[in-house]
Batch of 3 targets.
Target 1
Amino acid sequence: MEQLKERLPQVLSNFSWGVIGFFGSDETTLRNELGLIISLGTSDREVLLREACLYIEEILDYSKLQDVNVLDVLKNHPDVYNKFKIARILCDIHSKISNDSPIPEEEVLELCKSILAETQEDIFYQILVRIKCYLESHNFEVPEELIKALESFPRPKKVDYWGEYQKTLKDFDEKGREFHEKAKKEWELVKSGKAEDPIGSIQNIMWNLSEAVVYNFALRRFKLVKEAYEIFLQTYEFARENNLFKTKLSEDTWLGKLKRVNLKWGNDIRWYEDYRVITNRIIRLTRIAEFMMWNRRIPEFPYANPYINLGGDYEHNDSSLWALTKALMMILDHNRSKGNLPTLELQEEVLDYALRLNLLWPEDVKVLKCKDGKCIVFRGEISEDGLHGFKKYPFNADVVFYRGKDTVIGYSRMRKLGYVCGKEGVDKLIREALRPHKKA
């Protein structure tokens, strides 16, 4: 019982922050807190939020069976107690949102009171914005206290999205060159016999090559991609000739990050299991680069959907996965130009990530044909009056999704751009809902 009392504050703090993070769409919070203690297994934020709420209820039920009063335990931890109160209220509110039900005014007032007792972090502002958007979209009354609570927060800083996009491209450029040079220098040490720890050096080479290939591919620096592949082959031959595969090379903890991505690509070169992710990343992107340099259609097997389970693995600052998104946009566009169309599901998935990561910057309206439908990317403003039968799902203060039958719209309110994907009626929908972008 004493052990339970000792652990409750930390466990409830993690789960409470998890609920707050999922409800407010703050990926840093949800990865850093909830991701520490449960395996996420899905990218669906609503599912994860329900799961987190269930965990809290299970903890409360178990504590009750052990005759432990959770509120008494948390009295000595006021910060945890308030986060816990907020999380419990959010769980109740989320169940009502899931059923399109009204939210009792007293719940909103209690939430505002608890949130105003916290520091003015952006995540709490996002929570209140989401509730306000829900109430407005369902024509429910918005309590005056909710408006006042929102007004008490400092106004969000205006983001220069185009400037941030240019910074991202510059970051890709610097990291691509940096990782490539690191791998080359380390390989020279191994090749000349000057490496103090050949196994450790090979680990570093593989890691740096896999990162370099992603960034350089995303910027169409295909010559560097091919050079990385040559270094990779030479490193492989060195390891094979020196029997380094008989070591426990694959058990090092740095591979854990790569295993997260869970890419089920083939076994072109038989390294130990943990190496297949990074080696296949290098191999696949090199092959795809060659097809693009030859201006030929890319066979589907090399990239089949290299983003299996990616949504559950995205991190707020994992820029190599951002670069992979840019790379896949490029791959799909290349193959489309050769008459090889992607599935609607894959195209929408890529556009979803590109929009959220500020990588989607269409010059104008553009139609992206798919095997089972089409997507349209656009510049301009969405008029919600033209979206009949769609449910609104705000992702954050900028990005919002609208979902209807067989159709999804992703839209950036700040950048005034987005996409629509569907099986039929997409063109008509765009005509009715889009206020055209006026070129300067």
Note: The chain has three domains: 2-151, 158-340, 341-440.
Target 2
Amino acid sequence: MIYKLKLVPVVYQDLRKARKWYLEINKSLGEDFKLKVNEEFDYIRKYPAHYQKRYKEIRQAFVDRFPYTIYYLIEEELRIVVVVGVLAQKQSFQRIKKRLKK
């Protein structure tokens, strides 16, 4: 069964910043980034438990062709995947931990 996908508000900011950066390099690269992130979101919705846990209940999935990681948790009883961050792999995982403490 396919899970619903919920993005916490700060994730939209993560995605805008990343896409803007790629658009400045090349318009088609920005569009490709968006496509690859959406493909990964679709995969996570279908197979949420596929990826390993990184910290407590937070799982991580890698975006194909781009150095970005999607951090999410599963609310099994509600059948919802909650995305808490989409960060460049060079960014510290501490950002995700800080978001969870708020």
Note: Residues 4-100 form a domain with the YaeB-like fold fold (CATH 3.30.2310.20).
Target 3
Amino acid sequence: MDSASFRSSARVMRCKFEFFLHAQNVSVAPPMVPSDIAPLLLVLHSQPAVWFLGQLARYITRPLPWFESELNALASTSKLSHNRNSPIVGVHVRRTDKVSHKEAKFHNLSEYMVHVDRYFDYVEQIRLLDTKKDESRKPEVQRQIYLASDDISVFSDMKRQYSHYIVHNMTKNKLIVAAGGRFQTDKQTHIAIEIYLLSLTDYIVCTVSSNVCRVAYELMQTRQSEIGDAGELIQTVDTSYFWDSGQLIKCEMVQNEETMNLHTGDVVDVWNGNLNAPFEHQRLRNKTYFVDPSYKCVPRTIIGEMQDNLVE
């Protein structure tokens, strides 16, 4: 289907764009979870807000039949169809304008692959234990990744430095998007495809400062019948998961922080201002900013009421 016939046949709803939702005190802004499903989600899923956002994202981005067929074909070509014997790790390397505009720090490929190696080491140990229980099962694990990037050098670096890995990618459309051309129609289609394919992997390693990474992670949560709770199936190379311009996250201290006179059970606000510190948060308490390791607190789930007048 050409772009002209697509535009004439598509049903389009333009949503109002609101950037600083938290400043407007919008109670339904992410990462809110509706009160009617919150009790079950808190029990059944490790990341309730991410699960809920994933359902919304999946519904909003549901493809037209012709595009769904194309996506399924690409998934099969990229070895991302459902019935696979070995896991595939999705690796998304975001650079170009994200780095040049200083929105995020440059990260070498090795910073991603150390987590990929660790994941496959873990899978191999699990397979080895299973083999001891059932000798008919093979312990060998193919080390496969699905690689997506907007920097063409990443593909050659991967081939040169990690030749022992089987690498899948969109060979015809590697999503090499020049800075400034990211919002062209064809480029947006390629980005949508990459997000979908990344969401089909078994584990994602990426910079969470990237919108592509976050959406792929959110969409992954809709595959619960296939992979169960996917809330922990991500490793960030820079910051912790957040929702750009959403509500401030409340975090309950599980360890004392003597320098700030914080104790177990105290609640602070988390502000994701540092996009290059995966294990640190800057927290706002009495208008005083401070930095401490994220393991010292546990985020609270924000529960709210959905409204009937959200669409203008």
Note: The chain has ten helices and twelve strands.
